[in-house]
Amino acid sequence: MKINFSRLVGLKELRIILDPKCKASKGAREYVQKFYSQLKKKNPNLAILVRECEGVKPRLWVRYAEGREISISLTNQDVSDIHKRLQAVGAVRS
């Protein structure tokens, strides 16, 4: 999958929480491995936090500049599903 990330406006932080070994976090791990560097390169001032913790269900937290936060479950999602979810909340544009 080839994705061209645009510069994001209005976002303050992206947090991805995942289990480093759990099958339910596989898509989240793959998304981070494939796209973290591209996303960070296009958005150098955006805080992108990836937290690994055993026993957690994978989640994405998006915090907007005005302080509003959205949490999205990433359980058993593949890379393309995760990207679609990020697009839906305005966290990525491609």
From TrEMBL:
<keyword id="KW-0496">Mitochondrion</keyword>
<protein>
    <recommendedName>
        <fullName>NADH dehydrogenase [ubiquinone] 1 alpha subcomplex subunit 2</fullName>
    </recommendedName>
</protein>
<comment type="similarity">
    <text>Belongs to the complex I NDUFA2 subunit family.</text>
</comment>
<dbReference type="InterPro" id="IPR016464">
    <property type="entry name" value="NADH_Ub_cplx-1_asu_su-2"/>
</dbReference>
<dbReference type="GO" id="GO:0005743">
    <property type="term" value="C:mitochondrial inner membrane"/>
</dbReference>
<dbReference type="InterPro" id="IPR036249">
    <property type="entry name" value="Thioredoxin-like_sf"/>
</dbReference>
<comment type="function">
    <text>Accessory subunit of the mitochondrial membrane respiratory chain NADH dehydrogenase (Complex I), that is believed not to be involved in catalysis. Complex I functions in the transfer of electrons from NADH to the respiratory chain. The immediate electron acceptor for the enzyme is believed to be ubiquinone.</text>
</comment>
<dbReference type="Pfam" id="PF05047">
    <property type="entry name" value="L51_S25_CI-B8"/>
</dbReference>
<feature type="domain" description="Ribosomal protein/NADH dehydrogenase">
    <location>
        <begin position="21"/>
        <end position="92"/>
    </location>
</feature>
<keyword id="KW-0679">Respiratory chain</keyword>
<dbReference type="InterPro" id="IPR007741">
    <property type="entry name" value="Ribosomal_mL43/mS25/NADH_DH"/>
</dbReference>
<keyword id="KW-0472">Membrane</keyword>
<keyword id="KW-0813">Transport</keyword>
<keyword id="KW-0249">Electron transport</keyword>
<keyword id="KW-0999">Mitochondrion inner membrane</keyword>
